[in-house]
Amino acid sequence: MIRMIHPPMDDLVGLDRLVDNTAYLRGLESDRNKLRLQRVPLTLPKPKRFSALWAAAEKTYESLCEQQPIGRKLFQQFLLTSDPQCVAASKFLDELSDWSFAEDGTKEKAKQRILSKFCQPQSQTFLSYLTAEDVKLCLSHSDKNGEAAMELMREATRKFLKERPFLEYMKSPFFYRFLQWKECERQQITDRYFYEFRTLGRGGFGEVGTKLMRINMF
């Protein structure tokens, strides 16, 4: 006669919990791996002949470095990696943008800060491409007509950047990244460019959620 020996009830409960926890951890790890793969940014495509032809047709400073947001951002990043004068020009354009959007209460202080940082020869960030006549006119307009002084400095900066810095930018990796983005703009946008970040709610008309873009802009 064979006697059946049953394990204690506590051991069975503990075994069930172990199995459940193991399954849960494996599922959680699987979800994490899946989410990690979803969040891997897509790489920008290599620029093709069309992008190069387009850039050649639009090879103007105003078009590539001012009018297009991506081009303007990449050009500013290039300036910050260039010589000190280009760095100063980039910082001036940033502060000039802040000044243009400043309210009346802070606009005068912003103007004086710009003049002291970029229009004084003893300043470390002095815009050396400004001529002596430019500096004289800017300082003379600073009290009466601040906008005229800012516009004079803006035009002098544009004239400086349109020459050597712009030509060097066209040969830099930053411009290559710009061509990649122009190639990306030509491609059809599909679900592979996004991953589901969070579900906000479900209802009779469907599901509402948020998605994040998988391509890093910069």
From TrEMBL:
Gene3D superfamilies: Phosphorylase Kinase, domain 1 (3.30.200.20), Regulator of G-protein Signalling 4, domain 2 (1.10.167.10). It comes from the Eukaryota. InterPro entries: RGS, RGS_sf, RGS_subdomain_2. PROSITE patterns: RGS (PS50132). Keywords: ATP-binding, Kinase, Nucleotide-binding, Serine/threonine-protein kinase, Transferase. SUPFAM superfamilies: Regulator of G-protein signaling, RGS. Pfam families: RGS. SMART domains: RGS. Residues 67-179 form the RGS domain. PANTHER family: G PROTEIN-COUPLED RECEPTOR KINASE/RIBOSOMAL PROTEIN S6 KINASE, RHODOPSIN KINASE GRK7-B. This is RGS domain-containing protein.
